[in-house]
Predict the 3D structure of the following.
Amino acid sequence: MANTAAWLTSKGADLQVAPAPMPKPQSGEIVIRNQAVPLHPGDWKLAKGIIPIQLKFPAVLGNYTAGYVYDVGPDVTRFQKGDRVLSMSGFAVRGDNRYGAHQRFVLTSEMHTAHIGSTPFEVATSAISVYAAMSALILHLKLDRPYPGAAAKKESVLIWGGSSTLGFYSVQIAAQAGYRVVTTASEHSRAELIEAGATAIYDYRSPDILESLQSMGPYKAIFAATDSATDQMVIGSVLKAQGGGRFLTSMGLRPGVVLPPGVDAFFVQYMDDYFKPENVLFTKWVFGEYLEGGLKSGTMKLGKVDIVGGIGNLQKALDELESGRVKAEKLVINPHLD
C-alpha cells in the first residue's frame, strides 16, 4: 500500500501533496493508518517559522492522529494490527518526517498511544489535548492527579478560556481531582462546561469579570488555556489581590503586557515533557491509563470536531486556523478521503 503526505517545501510555502516513503517500525514503535488527523494552531505557526523550531525541508508536519494499527515493531506488547488507537507522534520534538502526522501512514511509539475502543476516530482526536492539560496542571502547576471518586477539596483553580479545547479538558481534569473549578467562557459554552465539572463560569467580556473572579478566590493555581493581552492583565490583577504569584499561559506573555509587582507569567512546551526520561511513568499513565480508560469506557467528556476533508484540504484548513475564525472545536482531516 502506498503512502502520501502533505509536504512543506520551504518556510511559509503552501503544502504540496506527493508520495512519501512507507515508515517501518523499530523496537517499541507502531505504524498507524491515519483515519483522523486533528489540526492545531501550532501547525501553521511552525510552517511559517513563528515557532522557533529548525525544520529540515521538505518536511511533513503534524503531531497527532487516530486510526488503525497497520504494523508493529519488536517488543510492542499493548497493540496488534487492526487496533483502533489515538497517538501523539511528536514530529515537533523528533524532527523526523516519519513521525509527521500529515500523511496517510505515520510512525509513532507504543508509549504515546492509547486504545480508543468504539469511540469514532474523529471524535477521539479532540481528546489528544489531554496530554497538554495534564502537563500544565500536574507537572507545572503541581495539582493532584485526577482519579474516580476524588474527595472534594476546598481549594479553587482558575482555568481561563474554558471553551477552548485545551481549556475544556483542563476543567474536566481539575474537577476530577476534586478542585473547585472556576473558568471563563461565553454563555454559549456554559452547559458543556458545567457537564465537564466547572463550579462557576464567568463571561470574560463582562465589565465585572475581575470582581467576579476575585469573589471565588484565592486560587491554588491559574492556567490560561487561551488568552489575550487584556485577559492577562485581568489575571495579573486577580493574583495581585491574593498577594501575588505565577500563572501558566499557553500563549506566552503578550507583547506590551506589564504585570503587577509580585506577579509573573510563564510558558512551557507541553509536548517536550513526554519525551523526557524522568517522565516515562507519567507518560505511560496519561496515555495507557487515563486517556485509554476514558475513551474505552466512554466516560470521558469529548470536545467538538469538524471534519474538513482529505489531505488535499489540509492547506485550506490551516489557513482557516490562522484566520482565527475557528472557535471551540478542532478541525480534522481524513488523509484517506482523497
About this structure: The CA atoms of residues 34 and 295 lie 18 Å apart.
